[in-house]
Amino acid sequence: MKKIRTFISILTGLIIILLNNQKISAQDVNGMKLTETYNYTYVINKFGTPDSYWSGPGEDGLDEEYYYGPNLFRFSENGCFGAFTLEDNRFAVFTLDMQGGIKVGDSVTKFNQLGFGQLISRGNNHYEFKGRGDAWFDIYHNNGIITLMCCSFPS
Questions:
Q1: How many of the other CB atoms lie within 10 Å of CB of 60?
Q2: What distance in Å separates the CA atoms of residue 139 and residue 80, rounded to the nearest whole number?
Q3: How deeply is 104 buried, as exposed, middle or buried, from its count of CB atoms within 10 A (0-12, 13-18, 19+)?
Q4: Which of 11, 61, 91, 153 is the most exposed place for a label (fewest CB within 10 A)?
Q5: SS3 104
Q6: Phi-psi region of 46 (alpha: psi -120 to 50; beta: other; left: phi over 0)
Q7: Strand positions, DSSP E, 34-144
């Protein structure tokens, strides 16, 4: 009986470790996952030279913002990708889950093709997408066509 309890205790511990280390967030922009850490060089190589860039000290390390036209990418705590706002179609979200991803200009119903999550109406021209993880994902649209997507992780 003692061996069984020891085995169950070890197995439970391994499951907890695996679940805590698993990145559940599927939100990505052109393959860059939120909650992952990236440095300046990697971001520039992935997205190109930004139209403007800001960096400064934050509570837990360096905070950075990259602006590509009206699009914003925010990194904190020395490179942790934590938020984005997309207002044009040069970037796509959920590219790791769907060929080509979802862009501004696509139909909001494209989110239903992901096979997970739920679109929740938040009033006129606004949906919230409840997918995997803790991200707040807001979608604004005009007659069902995406005009703006914002995503961030709670601090």
A1: 11
A2: 23
A3: buried
A4: 11
A5: coil
A6: alpha
A7: 52-58, 61-68, 71-76, 80-86, 118-121, 126-130, 136-142
What single DSSP character describes residue 110? G
Q: Whole-prediction pTM value?
A: 0.81
Token digits for 10? Answer: 């070890």
Residue ranges of the alpha helices (H) in the chain?
A: 2-21, 40-47
| Residue 35 near residue 21, CB atoms below 8 Å | no
Averages of pLDDT over each 10 residues, the chain, 155 residues:
41 33 63 95 97 94 96 95 96 95 97 93 94 88 97 81
Which of 85, 122, 117 minimizes the C-alpha distance to 104?
Answer: 85
For residue 89, which amino acid is it?
A: N
Of the candidates 71, 91, 88, which has an alpha carbon nearest to the alpha carbon of residue 147? 88
